[in-house]
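Inputs:
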Amino acid sequence: MTDPRPWPLDVPGLAYGGDYNPEQWSRQTQLEDVKLMKEAGVNLLSVGIFSWSMLEPREGVYTFAWLDEVLDRLHEAGIRVALATATASPPPWLTRSHPEILPRKPDGTVLHQGARQSCAVASPLFRRYALTMARRVAERYADHPALALWHIDNELGCHVPHDYSDAAAAAFRVWLARRYGTVDALNAAWGTAFWSQRYDSFDEVLPPLQAPTFVNPSQQLDFFRFSSDELLAHYRALRDTVREVTPHVPTTTNFMMSSATKWMDYHSWAPEMDLVANDHYLIGSDPHAHVELAYSADVSRGVAGGHPWMLMEHSTSAVNWQVRNRAKRPGEMLRNSLAHVARGADSVMFFQWRQSAAGAERYHSSMLPHAGRDTEVFRDTLELGRRLRALAPVRGSVVRAEVAIVLDYPAWWASGIEAHPSDALDYQEEMQRWYRALWERGVTVDVVSLHSDLSRYRTLVVPTLYSVSDADAQRIADAATGGASVLITFFSGIVDEHDRVRLGGYPGAFRELLGVRSEEFHPLQEHEILTLDDGTGADLWSEKIHCEGAETVRAWADGPLAGSPAVTRRRVGDGAAWYVATRPERSGVDAIVGALLAEADVSPEVPGLPPGVEAVRRHADDGSGFLFVINHTGASVEVPVRGHELLHDHEIQGRLTVAPWDTAVVREH
Amino acid sequence: MTDPRPWPLDVPGLAYGGDYNPEQWSRQTQLEDVKLMKEAGVNLLSVGIFSWSMLEPREGVYTFAWLDEVLDRLHEAGIRVALATATASPPPWLTRSHPEILPRKPDGTVLHQGARQSCAVASPLFRRYALTMARRVAERYADHPALALWHIDNELGCHVPHDYSDAAAAAFRVWLARRYGTVDALNAAWGTAFWSQRYDSFDEVLPPLQAPTFVNPSQQLDFFRFSSDELLAHYRALRDTVREVTPHVPTTTNFMMSSATKWMDYHSWAPEMDLVANDHYLIGSDPHAHVELAYSADVSRGVAGGHPWMLMEHSTSAVNWQVRNRAKRPGEMLRNSLAHVARGADSVMFFQWRQSAAGAERYHSSMLPHAGRDTEVFRDTLELGRRLRALAPVRGSVVRAEVAIVLDYPAWWASGIEAHPSDALDYQEEMQRWYRALWERGVTVDVVSLHSDLSRYRTLVVPTLYSVSDADAQRIADAATGGASVLITFFSGIVDEHDRVRLGGYPGAFRELLGVRSEEFHPLQEHEILTLDDGTGADLWSEKIHCEGAETVRAWADGPLAGSPAVTRRRVGDGAAWYVATRPERSGVDAIVGALLAEADVSPEVPGLPPGVEAVRRHADDGSGFLFVINHTGASVEVPVRGHELLHDHEIQGRLTVAPWDTAVVREH
Amino acid sequence: MTDPRPWPLDVPGLAYGGDYNPEQWSRQTQLEDVKLMKEAGVNLLSVGIFSWSMLEPREGVYTFAWLDEVLDRLHEAGIRVALATATASPPPWLTRSHPEILPRKPDGTVLHQGARQSCAVASPLFRRYALTMARRVAERYADHPALALWHIDNELGCHVPHDYSDAAAAAFRVWLARRYGTVDALNAAWGTAFWSQRYDSFDEVLPPLQAPTFVNPSQQLDFFRFSSDELLAHYRALRDTVREVTPHVPTTTNFMMSSATKWMDYHSWAPEMDLVANDHYLIGSDPHAHVELAYSADVSRGVAGGHPWMLMEHSTSAVNWQVRNRAKRPGEMLRNSLAHVARGADSVMFFQWRQSAAGAERYHSSMLPHAGRDTEVFRDTLELGRRLRALAPVRGSVVRAEVAIVLDYPAWWASGIEAHPSDALDYQEEMQRWYRALWERGVTVDVVSLHSDLSRYRTLVVPTLYSVSDADAQRIADAATGGASVLITFFSGIVDEHDRVRLGGYPGAFRELLGVRSEEFHPLQEHEILTLDDGTGADLWSEKIHCEGAETVRAWADGPLAGSPAVTRRRVGDGAAWYVATRPERSGVDAIVGALLAEADVSPEVPGLPPGVEAVRRHADDGSGFLFVINHTGASVEVPVRGHELLHDHEIQGRLTVAPWDTAVVREH
């Protein structure tokens, strides 16, 4: 564990609740809310996220009375509050009087008020207004007994991860000057000798605005870095403001860790949080959405340094922002919730408590739906509360994995910049391909950053780590030398952290470790599938490789590279370094993963489970384990385990039966 | 009939003609025009629509002489004129000297001069120029004997239904202040407590400009209402101007009623017209384009309150604005023309008389094509003139229907706003599905607004009436209580007129009438098809329904809702209320329509006709009927009828034979 | 040959080399460059293209020393230089201090610095800066012995063929005033009587900016003409500047002639060049990319008036700007290079010498790849050098063809403007369809402009010459009268040079020549395929034709036009005029081409070759021929020929064997 901070949230057991927006409802409805929350066992709510325009209805005029009443009422009901800074969306009076704080797209389009997040976080003027609001909230509620946690802003970067306004441009130049010191250093890093782009001073530099063709890729990559840093800077400024008023209250903001959220480098954000919180939503059209959920939960745990983390938002059923918003199947919400807990969440929270009647999110499901109490959704809200109370002992326990998969946000960004050998390459598609093969084998996986302790793992999977610094490449090599089986996939190690190609043969940074030299990429065309010498297919990518120390594991059976290596392996110190220079079909990936795990002697969490049954263990400080078994199938399953099943409160004498679509949690003896 | 106005157009028989743009042609060609028009029997022309830059070549300088000559020549030939206000497109000098009158898109893009309609109708400055032009034309031709009708502007809203310019924003705020009185009322209606959108004054409100994500849906809906109202306000201002000069001359403008034109609420526009006129164009790629034509004609009649209406524009053959502009098949133009007449049109007019040699519409077919007289198109122009003269007795007769289908423009707008349970839902697709089933059964249908007299019908079909006021929902319920069989389809009655969800269970406004309670929507994924218990398939939509007074007509046979209701029926007073909570395939829709009509004892206009043969009756004041039979098939058809066939002028003794692809009209005895 | 200029390039034999960007590399790497260049036989390099920001790092400050050193070193190595004016992309300091020189899109979007070509060539201010830079370079290196050619700017119009900035608008108005003299003439040409577009003065005219709907097509066409002319004007201004300093040095710029580059009328540009140079890149996803290469080379030769031309850029392997950048197969680069030479190129050059480590083009292949010397790519660089030295005798020889296909840029532009009968029509798709049928038959083809000597050919193919002047139509008719078999395809001759329709029946300008009259277009729908009376299929287009002098070659077998003509032929003087009024499938095109060639007695360059084997002859002044045989197949091929094979330096006694995928060049006795 890289970060030994204790769990700072003072809520008993596992936290349960969601976003609560009482300003949308009458007093009578608010009274009913509290009654139903208590019935459901809710103990934590996020309050005030979008309240700016209600708390400061015009500049400098504050109306806190309604919120006083809400917090008092919740406190009285024993419910604690993650109180927001109320800054997540500026009020109309602010953007109307100061349109210069609106964000802009690369083509100059202004993003106006009317939705949310219509603000340039880099604008000093906007930041001044936001800090004032945050300070007012902090001062008002510094001593309120309901206050358990500061919810700083909200989903920072969700809709405007990149702002191209003049304010952002100015901040970018400051950031660059700090990063590079001299403009010559920037010119060298960005390769501005190309296309007559040499800058004579930092003042000449722009964000990657719309241009006649491909903008300098190093400039783009730095702008992506800056944008993530600038959002974090906004977090820090808000956090410091409230911390000054309430040094005793922990702070966080809700991340959006998933296979889809790309632009915030949460690995660099996490150290600024008192705890890590995540919002996660299923993609309804994905038949394997529960695998993506597991991945996202594992990312969250990795970002949290292995510690427990908060599930700050998910949905009871359908969301509102996909094209066809699938309602969850019977039991699906319960399985989703417990899958997060199984992978380290010590809270289960939702957007939102009561489904809105108006506004853009009124078709997003909630704990209490439009149709009211007499609904399956609300009955499941009650059942989930019951289950989480039964799982209180789980709090604080941790997950342990022998396998890690490396996630690197800057590599994700860099690999997606255009004018690459194949723009069809998708970083997350590669990540998910390897993660899913491990999930299907029942192997518990940590999804880790390059800066975590890689030496702890028997197996390390490194999908498409396009950009990597020398130091980080060395850390991966050290893991192999130290005994791990390291698997690296194509288009890794190609460039340094400035997106400058490593010369002399691909895959630059890993050429020596892998014992291969590739002289040229041969991306495949759409629908082009070639065959490997074990008969499996592969698409998207091939390259002209020479083994220089490695052995060939798979060679091409056809295509222009027939006979030359496609998958290689090199013994390194006590470990091994594998290279997969193409994208094998699912069975091919599975076979490689099988060989890799066998070599490293890694077993599933529970051997012998049928496909679709997920098993993960959390380990308590006292050495006991909590085995979560989640049955994603329509058949009941038998699991060999001894202990006390917590959800149904009965002893298991060696054989646990989990009903179709159900979940069990056994505290093992 | 909701509107007892007499037919104000003083043209004998049925009007026949089209747009006439003599300014594009030499004097010699204009002389030939009149000769050929007389040969074809043309008796009405729309003149001057795009003449502003020719009539006022620079600010304040007027050149009417050429138009004087044209009108005199037409009058001399006995051709009457629908004279335009010449305001349909501002002249270049105007937009060049006043670019502030140009319209804008939500992202701020200015729509420049170079095409047509490059003007913000909400701009007071533009309106002043336009009214001046209209007044000049009116004053010039007030007493011209050719003047039969004022053609106010042209196709208002065709290309710029929504303008986001500053002028539009200012007018929107005025409109909102008038609608809501106080900004608190607006805040309540729009639910601005959500996402920190509370407005402190009307001055803060913007049109739904481009924003970081989904703009407030109630704001969008009101902007759509405003935009329709503002176009109508422009009409009214122009109309009042010419009416002041020529109080005796009727006024109208050409609507574009079809399954595609969405943004003008013609139901609210019609009362401002002295007669209702429509422009209709086939979609060449649609193999059932003649059904869509029938629908559009029925919409026109509904908008005209059941009265005869003008077909102001359609095409002799191909248009120019589709991707692949299909030429009409032999006889198709004649069938199209008479189908409009069959459904209430008392005129058949075209865009345009002579095909242009230049400009963006030069590949739009005309009465007289590029290739000249010796063409099938011109021969059909002559033949149509002959047929319309034979149909003169039809003038003034009306269509009668026992079935109505409800069309509501605001519900169309509201149902299409994003972030809904399924953005794949398309209002017109639902509308066309039910309309077509009725068309195929040969049943005459009125397409009516919610404000027409719904009590007149035996059967009322209400597709996806997403938004509805309490009062309008009550009118539908009253129709059922009064004895009608009312069929309502999914996602109806969900929100009120402000797009605020009706709480307590779906489908809010119709829950009691239908005797069902739905607790959750279950939209289906793309290509997902579930099965009903009669074996038919259904896609797009399902929902979790409980019968509370209704009986189950169809239940789900598979899927997560297997066994629960999909189609229900409840006896209500003397009638019945059906609910279709999914989108059945064609055969499923047909079976439901069959049961509905049988229950209501509704018959086809002519029972027993083969598929593809269309029969509609117009009824004269004297009780006689005109039976139109349009044969859309390649086989001749026998129709049992007695009377005088008008097109071929012969007596029918009980059995009319209609040749393949031909049309017959029998004045029944 | 229309242009008898001698080859002005003072480089011995065939020129060999590429773009050289030493500013991206260390001194040590530059020294290695020269060593490897000499090894490869490089004798010409393009230098300084993107050096502006390195040569003038801030306004008025010049740093030529590094370039002095480069040129001296190259001269010392015997390598000559095509020296650029360094103006291809403005330096950041210039666009930052003068943002008004940035180009704009039709919707007003500014195209910023960050890529390349972010400048409005019509801006007088920008041009002043560019001319100053060019003059400085010219003065500095006027007498440098390495200087062989001026490379004016670079790929003019590549990314910004059309600029809609205010500077461009002003220049457009000047251009129009020069073209039309009076605004009345413009109004007549553009048909501004339509849609109220009459201009009262040139000051009112805009570029075709974004408008509510289709902008006036004649306005668009003139703007396309202006844009091409304005880029050429920029070339001329730069050329005149350097020519003033170095009257003895030839000048050119690199065109981008291919099936994809549409917006520069290179036929009108060529007379301003001292020699014609081309950049050509394969489309990796096209399995027939070598046919497109042949076409592009033939276009280059046509633009060069039949003279030898320079291949200024192509690629050794993959490019970087396609979605999936295919690497070349073994031998493919050699075949590509010699195919260009076979069709008239007297140089083979690449982008670029050494593959960049940074910048947007770092994944574009080069003569010396990232992986260095020990690569197939560099070995082929050496082999190509060897082969080009062996081909030195080819220099100056020319290709002779009996068949020509007409390419007309303005017709390409005009045919692609929207609101046509079928927007699915694609000019180059038609061009390639007919070109490919000729290529597959082994027939050598000239691709010529309308202004070349058409009387030289036995067969003339004119695909979709939508717009044509009277004079040019007459030249085509004269070719037929003079004995040629002329084939014209649908949608030809429809409009004059102003895009005004020729009235009286299609295909206007060619109606008399072809002896047909078409009264109406019948474009086909997507996926609609009709059948001709020989059983072959045809899609996209049909039209209602009457033979008026022509005979029917193919009639429609089905569809609404069944029985009427689809392909016709008319005897004209000593020749014939064919009309193909649809788009036949490949076999149908081939059959028509077969009949056409048989009629004109045209034979392949080498009869009897198997499919995929390309044979072209270059003819020397002394009467001897060089037969190039390029084997695009995996089987070896025998070719009946006598002479000396140059690449492998051996005598051929009547039967040349060309190995699979290889090339041979025989100097025939």
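Chain C touches chain B through 55 residues (CB under 8 Å). Flag for discussion at group meeting.
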